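Summary for the lay section of the report: proteins are chains of building blocks that fold into shapes. Here we show the chain for Membrane protein and then a coded description of the shape we predicted for it.
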Amino acid sequence: MLIEGFNGLLLLITLVVAALAVFAFVDSTLRREDAYRAADKQTKPFWLILLGITALINVLPFLGLMGPIMLLQIIGLIATIVYLVDVRPALKQVTGGGRRRGGSSSDGPYGPFNGR
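The coded shape description reads as follows.
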């Protein structure tokens, strides 16, 4: 019974890691190429290749095409965490995506624009 619970927990962790890898890959495809240079980060193709391989390595075991390759999954998890914690916020800051939610479309950088 304890082994079944541990296997269930391990499956949940693996699923979350795979979902994070896929999210990071999709997010990196949506960012502009020049934003990577402006944020002084690695190039977009570098992150696309790295995160794409990571997503593939994490998704293939769920499709039954490959057994788990734990070392590559750990390396990929580190790359995903670096992207999500360091690169993504820098890209959002460069492209102006770090704006707070709930603002009006007429809000300027210093507050609401009333048209006067």
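Put simply, here is one thing we learned. The longest strand covers residues 107-108.
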